[in-house]
Amino acid sequence: xxxxxxxxxxxxxxxxxxxxxxxxxxxxxxxxxxxxxxxxxxxxxxxxxxxxxxxxxxxxxxxxxxxxxxxxxxxxxxxxxxxxxxxxxxxxxxxxxxxxxxxxxxxxxxxxxxxxxxxxxxxxxxxxxxxxxxxxxxxxxxxxxxxxxxxxxxxxxxxxxxxxxxxxxxxxxxxxxxxxxxxxxxxxxxxxxxxxxxxxxxxxxxxxxxxxxxxxxxxxxxxxxxxxxxxxxxxxxxxxxxxxxxxxxxxxxxxxxxxxxxxxxxxxxxxxxxxxxxxxxxxxxxxxxxxxxxxxxxxxxxxxxxxxxxxxxxxxxxxxxxxxxxxxxxxxxxxxxxxxxxxxxxxxxxxxxxxxxxxxxxxxxxxxxxxxxxxxxxxxxxxxxxxxxxxxxxxxxxxxxxxxxxxxxxxxxxxxxxxxxxxxxxxxxxxxxxxxxxxxxxxxxxxxxxxx
Amino acid sequence: xxxxxxxxxxxxxxxxxxxxxxxxxxxxxxxxxxxxxxxxxxxxxxxxxxxxxxxxxxxxxxxxxxxxxxxxxxxxxxxxxxxxxxxxxxxxxxxxxxxxxxxxxxxxxxxxxxxxxxxxxxxxxxxxxxxxxxxxxxxxxxxxxxxxxxxxxxxxxxxxxxxxxxxxxxxxxxxxxxxxxxxxxxxxxxxxxxxxxxxxxxxxxxxxxxxxxxxxxxxxxxxxxxxxxxxxxxxxxxxxxxxxxxxxxxxxxxxxxxxxxxxxxxxxxxxxxxxxxxxxxxxxxxxxxxxxxxxxxxxxxxxxxxxxxxxxxxxxxxxxxxxxxxxxxxxxx
Lengths: 452, 333
Ligand SMILES: Cc1cc2nc3c(=O)[nH]c(=O)nc-3n(C[C@H](O)[C@H](O)[C@H](O)COP(=O)(O)OP(=O)(O)OC[C@H]3O[C@@H](n4cnc5c(N)ncnc54)[C@H](O)[C@@H]3O)c2cc1C
Ligand code: SF4
Ligand code: SF4
Ligand code: SF4
Ligand code: SF4
Hints:
The complex is a heterodimer.
Chain A: E1 17-21, E2 25-29, H1 33-44, E3 48-52, H2 59-62, H3 66-71, H4 73-79, H5 82-88, E4 92-95, E5 98-106, E6 109-116, E7 119-125, E8 127-132, E9 135-138, E10 148-150, H6 151-157, E11 174-178, H7 188-204, E12 207-212, H8 222-231, E13 235-238, E14 244-248, E15 251-257, E16 269-275, E17 277-280, E18 283-285, H9 288-296, E19 301-302, E20 305-306, E21 322-326, H10 334-352, E22 356-360, E23 365-367, H11 377-381, E24 387-390, E25 411-414, H12 424-428, E26 434-436, H13 441-451
Parallel strand pairs in A: 2-3, 2-8, 3-4, 8-21, 10-17, 11-12, 11-17, 12-13
Antiparallel strand pairs in A: 1-22, 5-6, 6-7, 9-18, 14-15, 15-16, 19-20, 23-26, 24-25
Chain B: H1 2-12, E1 17-20, H2 46-58, E2 62-65, E3 68-76, E4 79-86, E5 91-97, E6 100-102, E7 106-108, E8 125-127, H3 128-138, E9 152-159, H4 175-189, E10 194-199, H5 210-218, E11 222-226, E12 231-233, E13 241-247, E14 252-258, E15 260-265, E16 267-269, H6 274-279, E17 299-301, H7 311-332
Parallel strand pairs in B: 1-2, 6-17, 8-15, 9-10, 9-15, 10-11
Antiparallel strand pairs in B: 3-4, 4-5, 7-16, 12-13, 13-14
One iron/sulfur cluster binds next to helix 12 of chain A.
């Protein structure tokens, strides 16, 4: 369809496949239901799965999502009985009340420490999936006060039979969902608010107001559900600035400027008064200990979300053999989170599922030991933990520091099983001792000379 | 594009894959899109699609049949029989497989259906697809009428999406993001340019989108206007195009001149393939795309065939499909 483009060709014959054997085993850890889906799929494919959840039962992983499942058939389809199926699956070893606290090693050979109750226990595995829920970090712009609930607390606190919220006897008469106050690039809460809103209205007669900055409809069938919600009497406002939430007469009061109002028709301020509950979309983040585990693996974290800010890493992390899912990857609506998680499961299966793995020795980095100055730059920056400093068979003339007593030479060496061919080491090496054999510098230069 | 990503995953798991593509080249629509980097990468995922395509093209494990259009997919014993037309030689042949992944994609909305927007009538009204191709092939935005660099540019969002009048009651999910990213490219190439962005709601596009949106909002030459323009027309002999809209902010009907107008078209189901799904036992969902819940017995969908997705989500959906295929084949053996 597009014009002819210059393409850098891999020279013929430059491929050397080496077979590495690998145990088909993974650890799936976390409190997000995406983890259950990953565990089930991988176990069905014959991978030995160890599932670690922080609760006494698997049902608690799914429980907070039950209200969304009552409101949305496709979520129900995903989560219905998944806890039961996983608790009976012969291919899954379940470890309850367990939290993963430390990971070391590399793809194919991870050592994982978990806290189980009071004890620490070590596990060995080839691959790791971390499917975490986010914790409410804050409610930006909304003062904490009685009657204001973070969205996730609302989801986990509501009684599906009575509609009552945690600590209350009856269902609230009205619920205000206040969205987008801090997080605008997340749409899970908007979708959940509309679908759960319809459920509350139908089942308990609750009056539902939805206040948002943008109406987020980029989830399957959302535009239609939004229309249906409006027809069923749910009132949706778009506000200009974050609404004020304060104590009003006989409850909470929310005041905001209606963005849809035509301003030439006079002031557009709207007040909702005597409200029982305001459910506000919080910012979600990972708990500090979980963030610490990821940081130690050099998996970048931004705003509590794991994974690099780089499109080339679609669904994976820079650490080969480790994937993240659930809110740890990005807070998403359950159907979207399931897609992301299963794509991450496929990513893991590809590496560890088959018992052996072929590595093309020409796609990895190679150190020329005669140039290496053992400065350890590559060792520090390699995101895949693929560089070790070792002895070589000939003298390293550039040796300056780091030499152990008695050693006359040593140099960096790449562990080809785990090297991802990312090239970071090659670009950072001050002694220009590392090359990617796949695209040696000479060939790249040659290509540029011919094409520019 | 999703088909390619799925094929790549399956070959890495040791499965023999045949990739059938009706066009002379693989890659689908995304093969025509531009890189939307300004002084930094704006994370449009187009290069990821390019890379997947290159990987499959160079792989020995995939049998690549271009110019081969699938006409029929039929269950045959435990596997499938596909009737495939070789469009160059005009002959039909049969391909057999244990499992089938339909990744037949979408059709870009035909903007001439919205006659009031003047597409096809005025040279300087482009679709998002035209602008993608222009930026990919020519490197910068020009007015097709005279080849000049445009200074005042309007983007109209949701053209052919979220629109009951044409029966498209769904959001196309990718167009807010691609439009904002291309607008950023235009702003960075031509610092004197001004962008007017007509929209209903901005749809967030995943975890890598926030920065682009913030950059647009902080740019003083970037105007977000919550309105859907009602008409584009020429005004006597004056240069440029006149656009009329009711703007909520001021409450008045505004008329403005623009050098270039971009219609952010969305996606619709590809009608050409409707017979194909039906015969294969798949049914449309509420939005008219294939309902993935109707996939069974070794037939799977990947990418936009089951509803609008951007490249990132098409790839993720393709990986998910690959996992389902592997799980199905494991259960069969
Ligand atoms: C104007 C525009 C701009 C966009 N820009 C971006 C962007 O910048 N970033 C982004 O992430 N997303 C963008 N998107 C979304 C992106 O186009 C899609 O996510 C992506 O193309 C989906 O890939 P696909 O494989 O599902 O479909 P397609 O790209 O439609 O691919 C389907 C393939 O199947 C082939 N095919 C169809 N029927 C048959 C048959 N019967 N037999 C054989 N082969 C068949 C087609 O020829 C095609 O190659 C944009 C969309 C539009 C409309
Ligand atoms: S960065 Fe270069 S010089 Fe330093 S240890 Fe690595 S290979 Fe040796
Ligand atoms: S190319 Fe270098 S930095 Fe990248 S994974 Fe391999 S050894 Fe590590
Ligand atoms: S993601 Fe898009 S903007 Fe970034 S480098 Fe790739 S093509 Fe360019
Ligand atoms: S992504 Fe944006 S432009 Fe596209 S249909 Fe949805 S709201 Fe409209």
